Amino acid sequence: MRSVKEGDKIMSLIKWTPFIEPSWVNDFDRMIEGVGQGFNFTPAVDVYQDKDNVFVETPLAGIDPEKVDISIENDVLTIKGENEKKTEVEEKDYYRKEVRRGSFFRSIQLPAHVLGDKAEAGYDNGVLKITIPKAPEAKPKTIKISMGKK
After folding, report:
1. Within 13 Å of residue 22, how many CA atoms lie on the same side as its CB?
2. Residue 42 belongs to a domain
3. For residue 100, what are the CA distances in angstroms to 27, 41, 45, 50, 112?
4. Is 13 part of a structural domain of the chain?
């Protein structure tokens, strides 16, 4: 930290870090998340598209893909499941416990009208990737004007 003299005042410069929260904010968030039976979390997603498909990717490392439910209704994708809590020894004196266990749920409005019944999902290296074909767009129809006789 530096000081700058402005007139007769000496002011301290404080580095502005808009994306870094103070540690107490993170600790408070963790405390609130831990209230109740288990942890509920919302997985991060990447949604992108090409001309034919919409793609959704989400990291679900450590979660059994057989226990993940995926549904699509009215162009809204829903992913939900549970990360089973393994038996823990109560006597452990944790310094920090950040590994999340519990249920998760995520609904995403898709950017295009899709054919949900033709969607496919794959799981590789802890990442769930869903490919959803776009519905065929209504093709423009050319209408000719008929001319009446004079």
Report:
1. 3
2. yes
3. 14, 8, 17, 33, 32
4. yes
Is the per-residue pLDDT at 99 higher than 80? no
Tens of pLDDT, residues 29-65: 555 544 444 556 788 999 999 988 999 999 988 888 9
How do residues 124-145 score in pLDDT, each as one tens digit? 999 999 999 999 874 456 788 8
The structure's pTM equals 0.60
Domain that holds residue 123: 3-86+98-133
Q: Using CA atoms, how far apart are residues 79 and 60, in angstroms rounded to an integer?
A: 11
Residues 6+ apart with CB under 8 A from 112: 49, 54, 75, 134, 135
Residue at 147 is within a domain:
no
In a domain, 14, yes or no: yes
Please report, for the domain that includes residue 42, its CATH number.
Answer: 2.60.40.790
User: Mind listing the pLDDT tens digit for each residue in 110-119?
Assistant: 999 999 999 9
Q: Give phi and psi for 129, each to the nearest 5.
A: -125, 125
